[in-house]
């Protein structure tokens, strides 16, 4: 096997709409095999929810659970995403406690690494910012918390975008993306809403004219 690892998988999308929101899930197994020892880790993706489909600010969140399996080393990692999300009743009951504390991590990730019934380590963090092992299993001498990913510090692999022969319809020329790259978040949001309104109007006219999806 060339390289450090080999990745493959399959997926089938399913989705349900509820008013102004959409919930989707990509069912299917993802696999990565490491060249170092031939171990293969498998997992499935969590549920994705999107609010603001028809109007308002669009918000995307991952929710649910993921199970990572490494059969070669008899390891299983159970991961819950957005574990700090609370219902109305739960929020009211714990409002006083949350005021005393720093509060939950947004889009929190919680997990446990185990071999059989034995828990080896605990995972915590947020899929937006950082992940760490609490006991530092495999993190070197001394133990203690061990960071495995930090959005601000971890190295990034950048893709060199093609700049020649690009069509005018290329997504990079969308006005909302142009404003976003400039750091104009308000202008980007307005441009995105204008684009979506144009798409809805176009769909309405096509449907009125007898076009089928």
Largest sheet: 12 strands, antiparallel
Mean pLDDT: 85
Structural class estimated from helices and strands: alpha+beta
Low-confidence stretches: 87-102
Number of helices: 4
Distance between the termini: 43 Å
The portion of residues forming beta strands comes to 35-45%
Radius of gyration over C-alpha positions, nearest whole angstrom: 22 Å
**SSE run:** EEEEEEEEHHEEEEHH
Roughly what percent helix? 10-25%
Strand segment count: 12
How would you describe the shape?
A: elongated
Structure description:
This protein is α+β, with helices and mostly antiparallel strands. 21% of the residues lie in helices and 37% in strands. The protein contains 4 helices and 12 strands. Strands 1, 2, 3, 4, 5, 6, 7, 8, 9, 10, 11 and 12 form a 12-stranded antiparallel sheet that branches. A hairpin with a 3-residue loop joins strand 10 (118-126) and strand 11. Helix 3 runs antiparallel to helix 4 (185-208). The longest helix has 24 residues, at 185-208. It is elongated and about 65 Å long. The two termini are 43 Å apart. Residues 87-102 have low confidence and may be disordered.
Layout of strands and helices, then pairs:
Elements: E1 5-9, E2 12-18, E3 21-27, E4 30-34, E5 40-43, E6 47-51, E7 59-70, E8 75-81, H1 88-93, H2 95-100, E9 108-115, E10 118-126, E11 130-133, E12 146-150, H3 175-182, H4 185-208
Antiparallel strand pairs: 1-4, 2-3, 3-6, 4-5, 5-7, 6-7, 7-8, 8-9, 9-10, 10-11, 11-12
Helix pairs in contact: 3-4
């Amino acid at each position: 096997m060339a390289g450090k690892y080999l990745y493959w998988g399959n997926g089938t999308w399913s989705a349900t709409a509820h008013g102004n929101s959409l919930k989707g899930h990509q069912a299917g197994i993802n696999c990565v095999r490491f060249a170092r020892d031939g171990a293969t880790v498998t997992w499935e993706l969590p549920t994705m929810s999107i609010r603001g489909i028809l109007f308002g600010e669009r918000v995307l969140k991952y929710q649910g659970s993921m199970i990572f399996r490494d059969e070669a080393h008899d390891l299983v990692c159970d991961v819950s995403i957005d574990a700090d999300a609370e219902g109305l009743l739960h929020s009211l009951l714990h409002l006083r406690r949350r005021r005393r504390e720093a509060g939950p991590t947004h889009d929190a990730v919680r997990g446990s690494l185990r071999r059989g019934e034995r828990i080896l380590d605990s995972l915590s963090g947020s899929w937006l910012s950082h992940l760490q092992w609490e006991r530092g299993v495999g993190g070197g001498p001394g133990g203690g918390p061990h960071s495995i990913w930090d959005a601000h510090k971890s190295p990034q692999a950048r893709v060199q975008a093609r700049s020649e022969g690009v069509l005018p319809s290329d997504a990079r020329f969308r006005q909302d993306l142009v404003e976003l790259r400039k750091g104009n978040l308000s202008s980007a949001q307005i441009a995105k809403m204008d684009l979506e309104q144009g798409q809805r109007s176009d769909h309405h006219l096509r449907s009125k004219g007898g076009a089928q999806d």
